[in-house]
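The protein record passed on below.

***
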Amino acid sequence: MAGISKNSLFFLAPVANSVNGEEIFKLLETVLPSHIPPSQAQLAPPHQPYQPETPTEFIQDVKDRMNKAPMSIRITPHILSCINWSDPLNDPIRMQFIPMMFSYLPDHPKLGLDSLNERSDSPIKGLVHRYPEKVLFLATSVCNVYCSYCTRAYSVGPETRLIMKDPNKPGKSRWEHMFKYIETTPEIKDVTVSGGDCYQILPENIKLIGERLLSIPHIRSIRFGTRGLAVMPSRTLDQTDTWTDELINLSNLAMTFEETKTVALHTHFMHSNEITWVTRQAARRLRENGVTVRNQTVLLKDVNNNVTVMRKLLEGLKDLHIQPYYIYQCDMVKGIEDRRTPLSEILNMEEQLLGTGAAGYDLPKFVVDLPGGGGKRPASTRKCYDPSTGVSVFTAPAVKGDKKEFRYFDPLWACGEGGDGGD
């Protein structure tokens, strides 16, 4: 299961075969080696003084971490088959979906569940209106996989021991209120449909949402957010599944309007190991049918916070004709402090990658989605930043409301004794 072979049918397992809850522990019993190689990561204090060395210790370590995790475990067969199970502690895909206690760090005091303040910026439940011309249409709270670092941990997935969720359940009556708000707010031009994951919306409802939004005269751009291309690419190739057909139809429909309208797919690759032969075929189908695909990546410690690793991902995306759109600084979400990186790393990565000679359209924007509702700002536009305290200050002139200055806090492990854990 260390990779996907041309002859493997493992990737063909349907959505219903995603591995959840207790099932993951049964699977781990079958795939883990008898001796677990040690982690090569530099663990920041105060980390656990041990590392699991046997399958039994590994499984118990995962169970212990789940008591402190904001997200449940849910993984597709495709992603499970991309994990290098002979070296699971060091695998960058395992780190995204199966958090472990041995690397756990206490939360920064400024971390929150709704760190981006989405609910306060929602005039209607599930519709975030932060920028005057843009809204975020949260159509569902279910995903194909549950990323351990999810910025929407307050809403997405089943409840955990740490969090009582506030879900945005899919439903036409709830969506109707959102449609009405958009229709009666003519300054809105851009709608991102997300969740959760749009792959979890029925094909007929993708059609319903897309056609309804395209019919609104002032809407110019619609983006459907899904990690499906990265974690379940076989669905794009399944001729019995009409989800991709509906997306292609909407992309074509947008081009028939007299006004300029666009429909795009925004996906979420984190590491080049997620790109397989199945991914290439799925991306090719989208390209051949004229669908614009953009990628958003989150910078995570020991997953992709390395210039060489990130460059390989960007090259892989280019080969798939997927536009690298954003590299995000990890949001200040509870329960994932061992994966956050200091602002200095994204600034250094931007400097290194922009100096490679690659064409500008093949390079992403390096951004911080500011805590408290400041929206996305280029990391390089910080007003000030002191790595010794870990505090950076940004201004956000484009967001609604009177507050225009926002702060991001590095993880305390990166700041040493000078770290600012409070005001």
About this structure: The first strand starts at residue 19 and ends at 20. The two ends are 48 Å apart (CA to CA). Confidence is low (pLDDT under 50) at residues 1-14. The CA atoms of residues 293 and 301 lie 26 Å apart.
